[in-house]
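Open question from group meeting: does this chain pack into something compact, or does most of it stay loose? Before anyone orders reagents, we agreed to write out a predicted structure and look at it together. Recording both the input and the output here so the notebook holds the full record.
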Amino acid sequence: MGADFGPRAMGCLIFGTLLALPTMLFLVAASRRPHIGAVGIALTAGAGGIVGTIGLLLHCPLVSVSHRIAGHGAVGLVATALLAIAAVLVSRRREIPVDA
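Structure tokens returned:
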């Protein structure tokens, strides 16, 4: 791990999250339910995380395990956090329980 480890891992994390967003937005928009719920958050973020991680595996030339864990593996965690925050904000606006 050199001095450029942090910036490179952060670059992959941001790029992977940006790759995951269209998938998550499509799945939320395609849902016929008025709210997504906890299971929907997990499934949608999981799908987005998988798409983002596969995109990074095809794009990123770095093969070190620490980089792949920090930069690639965290995409699913960030996707889950973003979707959960969005669900809470929407449920507060609409007064819908998140777990319903």
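Observations to bring back to the group:
The chain has a mean pLDDT of 86.
The radius of gyration is 15 Å.
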